[in-house]
Amino acid sequence: MNVDQLKNLLKHYHLKPNFTYGQNFLIDDIVLQDIVDAADISEADAVLEIGPGIGNLTRALCERAGFVLSIEKDPKFFPILKSVKKDYPENFRFEIADALEFDFQAELSARGFINPNAGTNVVPRPDPRSGSAFRSAGYKVVANIPYYITGKILQMLMTAKVKPSSIVVLTQKEVARNLAAKAGDLGILAISVQLYGEPKLVQVVQSKSFYPAPKVDSAIVKIDLYDKAKYELADEKRFFKIVKACFAGKRKQIHNTLVNNLHLDKNFVADILRQLKIKPEARPQELTIEQWIDLAGKIQ
Length: 300
Prior knowledge:
Layout: H1 3-12, E1 25-26, H2 29-39, E2 46-50, H3 56-64, E3 67-72, H4 78-87, E4 92-96, H5 104-110, E5 124-126, E6 133-135, E7 139-144, H6 147-158, E8 166-172, H7 173-179, H8 188-194, E9 197-205, E10 210-211, E11 218-225, H9 236-247, H10 254-262, H11 266-275, H12 289-298
Parallel strand pairs: 2-3, 2-7, 3-4, 7-8
Antiparallel strand pairs: 1-10, 5-6, 8-11, 9-11
Helix pairs in contact: 2-3, 9-10, 9-12, 10-11
């Protein structure tokens, strides 16, 4: 799809980009296929798509997946998604809803792709096209979402009762780099994602691939979630309270943020940092996830 084709499509449906929702439409067909390839979609997969918009990525997903559930917040896209439904009546459903509030797991469960009562994402399901049996990989997520809501969407997915096996997200390049950051540059977003999975920056997508073209480039990120928890948290709520308190003084030294922001005794802080071999002058972004977990375990 080129710019003229997109403009004609928008004109046909009396639509304009909604800047409140951060709408920049991807028009590069090669990038669309790169996203689907990165998600590694097959007929065995159910796909949760967040932010289908004009439906061009949706169609590419429907061509490969056993089932696609798309959630779109902007009701103006209803007619476009309805036309997609006509072309893919058997394996596509869409909802006009807020992805942060819609119970997508109930829909995926009803169709047999996930078992909400089991501690696994894998449930048996017959192949609707060949009739042969296979074990479904649960569900995968593909999302083209504005950067300002990326953190909330990922947090929702990472803490879902049944987590996806993987997430492929197209977001602002700087956000993508933050997600895949290593110790030394770790932020709250990276920590909250890397507790549950391994993010990888797949490729940069130039701003000219969108209409209207944003001011910055974007990037495709794939997050493969761990089959089993890699890290054990005694108290997840307490863990993030400590992390957020320390990052409230990101440029400050860790011993100062613990004392000032969590109101801990100075000698107590010095003692636990010594036990954990964390330098008192270290900045919050310099700690590894393992160090954050150890630190949270010492603070009751």
